[in-house]
Amino acid sequence: MSTQISDIHIAQADPLPQPRLLQGELPAGEAEAAFIAASRAATRNILRGLDDRLLVIVGPCSIHEPESALEYAARLRRLAPRLDDSLLLVMRVYFEKPRTRMGWKGLIYDPELDGQGDIGAGLRHARRILLECARLGVPAASEILDLVTPQYYAELLTWGAIGARTVQSPLHRQMASALSAPVGFKNATNGSVGAAIDAIHVAVQSHRFPSISLEGKAIVITTTGNPDGHLVLRGASDGPNYDAASVSRAAASLSQAGLPARLVIDCSHGNSNKDFSRQPAVAADIAQQIASGSSSICGLMIESHLVEGRQDIVDGRQGLRYGQSVTDACIGWEATVAVLEQLAASVRQRRAGARA
C-alpha cells in the first residue's frame, strides 16, 4: 500500500470538451467574424484618438439569464443608430464574477444558479450568447478572470477587462498579452493607478508561458504583446476617482509612463460608492468634462439591466424577477437611455468646440 500524496483534496474530476470541439459545435461564421474584427478596429481607433466618439461599455453586472441578456442586446441594437455618430456602444457580457469570499461565481461556473457547477453547460451558454450578440450586430465585452476558459470564447469579444483584484497578477498580465481584443486594466482596489500602468507595460511585451491548445493539450505559447492595453478608473475603497482632478492626475501618470493619456472611467464600483443609483450623477459629471473639451476621457462603463436594482438567489432560478441583476445592482433601461443620450450630447458639444 502506497502513501497518497496527490489529489488529497480533489473530490471529483469531470472532463470538459476541447475548445476546438466547442467552437465546431457553436461556430462563428464569416459574417460574425467580420463584425467582431470591425468592432475591434473601431474600438482601437477610439482608444488611439483616431475617432472622437466615446466608447461606452454598458450592460448587466453579470449575465445569469440568456433570455434577458439577448433582450437587452436587441434593445441596445435598436438604440445604437440614433447615437452612432457620438458613441460606440459595446454590451457588457460578463460570465465570471470574482469573489472576496463566497457567492455565485457567474454563468460559466454555475449556469443553473443551484450550486451544481456544470461548467461545460456554462461555456456553451456563454458562447451562444456571444454569437447571438454578433449576429444582432452588438459588440460584446467581458472580464477575463479565469486563465483557461478564454480559450472557449475570447475570440468573440470586442473588448476585455482585467479587474481590480487581478490587475497585479503576473499571470493575468501575460495572458492579456495574448488576447486579440483591446484590454482595459482597472486601477487596484486600493486606488493604485500605478498597478494598472505597470500591467499595461507588461501586457504590451512578448511573453512565453504554458497554456492549453484548442485541442486541449498542454502547450507553451509565445505572444507578440497586446498594443491596446489602457487604463480604467473605477474608484477605490476610500473614494471615487472620476472627478476632473483625478482624471488629470491619471492622464499625467500615463504620460510620464510613456503611454497615451487616454482612459476609460467606470461609473460603478468605487466611483459610485457602490450605490447603483449614483451612476447617472457620475456619468453627468464625466459628460460635463467631455463637453468642456477633455480629450483624455475616451470611454465609460455603466452597469445597467432591463430592471433596476438587484435580487438574491434563493432557490436557483425559481422566483427570480426577469431582467434584474443577481449580483451588483444596476440602473434600469429608461435611466440608461437618458445617460447615453446625455453622453452623446457631450461628445457633440466637444466636437463643436474643437471646430470653433
UniProtKB/TrEMBL annotation:
Record-annotated DAHP synthetase I/KDSA domain positions: 44-340
GO molecular function terms noted in the UniProt entry: 3-deoxy-7-phosphoheptulonate synthase activity; identical protein binding
Gene Ontology terms: biological process: amino acid biosynthetic process; aromatic amino acid family biosynthetic process; chorismate biosynthetic process
Catalytic activity: D-erythrose 4-phosphate + phosphoenolpyruvate + H2O = 7-phospho-2-dehydro-3-deoxy-D-arabino-heptonate + phosphate
Organism: Polaromonas naphthalenivorans (strain CJ2)
Lipid metabolism keyword on record: no
NCBIfam families named in the record: aroFGH, PRK12755.1
Entries under InterPro entries matching the protein: Aldolase_TIM, DAHP1/KDSA, DAHP_synth_1
Spans through the membrane: none
Task performed by this protein: Stereospecific condensation of phosphoenolpyruvate (PEP) and D-erythrose-4-phosphate (E4P) giving rise to 3-deoxy-D-arabino-heptulosonate-7-phosphate (DAHP).
Record's GO cellular component terms: cytoplasm
Keyword Transmembrane helix on entry: no
Name of this chain's protein: Phospho-2-dehydro-3-deoxyheptonate aldolase
Entry EC no(s): 2.5.1.54
Keyword entries, A-Z: Amino-acid biosynthesis, Aromatic amino acid biosynthesis, Plasmid, Transferase
Pathway membership: Metabolic intermediate biosynthesis; chorismate biosynthesis; chorismate from D-erythrose 4-phosphate and phosphoenolpyruvate: step 1/7
Source organism, top-level taxon: Bacteria
Broadest EC class assigned to this enzyme: transferase
Pfam families per the UniProt record, alphabetical: DAHP_synth_1
UniProt record similarity statement: Belongs to the class-I DAHP synthase family.
